[in-house]
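We were asked to recover a plausible sequence for a given structure. The inputs and outputs are reproduced exactly as logged, with field labels preserved.

PROBLEM: sequence recovery
POSITIONS: 84
GIVEN STRUCTURE:
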């Protein structure tokens, strides 16, 4: 299927990134052990992914732009103790 095209100009993406930066990061309860247990619980994993997607989709356009996705990845790296 074709990739969705960004619906907002670059300036809006930067504004969205600033909104993401203003939000609290992923809860500290996301630990490597918790993440591992999520892999064996597909329904919980799906629910959690949807929740995080909504949280990091700062401009609510249904797509994580580059800045929103990077904010999510950086928070996951920190919580899961994954080096950058």
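RECOVERED SEQUENCE:
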């Amino acid at each position: 299927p074709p990739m969705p095209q960004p619906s907002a100009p670059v300036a809006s993406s930067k504004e969205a990134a600033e909104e993401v930066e203003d939000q609290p990061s992923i809860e500290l309860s996301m630990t490597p052990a918790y993440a591992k247990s999520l892999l064996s619980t597909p329904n919980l994993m799906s629910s959690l992914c949807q929740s995080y997607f909504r949280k990091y989709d700062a401009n609510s356009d249904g797509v994580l732009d580059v800045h929103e996705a990077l904010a999510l990845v950086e928070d996951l790296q920190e919580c899961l103790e994954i080096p950058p």
